[in-house]
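Problem statement: downstream parser choked on a complex file, so we are re-checking the raw output for the RUQ run. The parser issue turned out to be on our end (a line-ending mismatch), but while we're here, posting the original submission so the record is complete.
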Amino acid sequence: MKSFKLFGLSTIVAISALTSCKPKGTETAISGDAAERVYVAPGKYDEFYNFVSGGFNGQVSVYGLPSGRLLKSLPVFSVNPENGYGFSEETKPMLETSHGFIPWDDQHHLSLSQTNGEVDGRWLFANANNTPRVARLDLKTFKTVEILEIPNSAGNHSSPFLTENTEYVVAGTRFAVPTDDQNGDVPITTFKENFKGVISFIGIDKTSGEMDISFQIEAPGINFDLSHAGKGKSGDWFFFSCYNSEKANTLLEVNASQNDKDFIMAVNWKKAAEMAKAGKGRKVATEYAHNVFNESTHTATSTMKKEVLVLSVEDMKDAMYFIPCPKSPHGCDVDPTGEYIVGSGKLAALIPVFSFTKIQKAIADKAFSGEYDGVKVIKYEAALHGEVKKPGLGPLHTEFDGKGNAITSMFVSSELVRWNIKDLKVIDRVPTYYSTGHLMIPGGDSKKPFGKYVVAYNKITKDRYLPTGPELAQSAQLFDITGDKMKLLLDFPLFGEPHYAQALPGEMLKNQVKFFKIEDNKHPYVTKGEKESKVIREGNKIHVYMTSIRSHFAPDNIEGVKVGDEVYFHVTNLEQDWDVPHGFAIKGNQNAELLIMPGETCTLKWVPKKPGMYPMYCTDFCSALHQEMQGYVRVSPAGSNTPLIYSLNNKKDNAQSPVKQAVTK
Ligand code: RUQ
Ligand code: CUA
């Protein structure tokens, strides 16, 4: 065990600025059987899927635990030229917003869908911070199937957290901003009058999973940081950590750190939903995109919504309260029983734990210390279960092991600290390398944690890996938590910047799609067999109905494309077998490639800029004759009269694929 000296707050900055805060004994921190504990033999599966947010890369990556092996990177909010996400005509609508097409976002938190408070393996929800959105991924295909923009919001950080039966996913704004129906063109110094902190409750369809904003709450103009729903007895409530109760609009690092306490906001979402149903609130005119990927047409559509229902503080009078929480709380975590709510104040030297029972009693007894912008503030002591004393420096996030303990990440003192939820005694601590942000126990924010491992997601990895220039990978560290002492088992580097993560047993995802049935393909430009392949000109648009199968495209020779044409390659992968994608790329395309799954149709747009011969080829080594999977497109000058023809195997007498004159409409 390592012990850390506690430093005064004034020295925190100095500590974090130090370049070497490496605790001693790094080399000996690994226990003898660590290699065995993380070894997954070749050909064997990992026990858990670990879904890790990509932070500034906008994606989600999937690792196996305990091996730390990277299984996949899933494109969500950023374009992915590797497989054409955001570049293919089918997926471009996924990244549409009220600001137009947006190729990048910042992805922080993930939530696995739950039933009765337990992870159920259906969907994974992800937030986008910068241009507020929530995405849903289908765990049958590991694809992003829906993205909903969040109006009246900016910096969608307090998101996407779920109620225990996946009724709602929340999205709380980090930045207070004027609402979309108010004039946003106001002096920033009018912050206190004009800026509001809106939180959204997005309803989720029970069977399809489709999202729709049910209502929003216009809360005071403070920053919402994180949140978690209650469970069991507290299941009707949602808890949000809030900072900047000072309402600073500049130099927040100083000005938003003045108050001794900020808040946890407790919202009775059941009551709020009743209020919304009863016709309370105002309709706010706004614009927000709703993008849905249809799995039978393999195509996304984007619809612009125009209105959202917003409840006021007044509407929420008996359903929304503030609980004082020391010092700029970040994580807001609820234990598996639903009784304890943990607020982790980044600048606090203790961790407050609130009791749901006491909160309810305080409300009944009217144990309020006053109001903040019309919201009643419950007395700190009346809501408090107790404080964890001297837990470490810079507590950020807490997960639960399901055995009555909590584990909290310490950013400044670089450690994980385990403590007992009831008596609040610290029982174990282990150093991390370095500056842990989030941590994750599989199922650790549900009613039923799997409790075998904790993973620390570290912001700094200095000296842990071979150096790679100025930019170093961020990393995860896996610890065994089955014994009295947490034991470091493994370091593994990560893509992007990890924030929250989720994990579930591999067993839960048995019913995955292995390929798409070609007969079920409803894509408007599908080509279900080579005989149906064709090229059609419509004005300056050329539609190529193309197929791919090991190891050729049909057609593979096209002539008569002219400069000024827009060519759409609609490529259908005819394979009906698992793990046989084909790629498609063409020289000079200012786009990306396609990676087409078996039975799927994808479209790549190409606008050739100059006459010449343009090879196209399959980019995925799909067979022994993959290098033969290629073709040519001849591009003639604008206005030339080269006929539009296409063929496979050159032969006019080949009934399968003669050289054909393209249809011109
Ligand atoms: S955050 S590193 Cu964006 Cu969840 Cu705490
Ligand atoms: Cu198809 Cu390589």
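For whoever reads this later: The first helix runs from residue 12 to 17.
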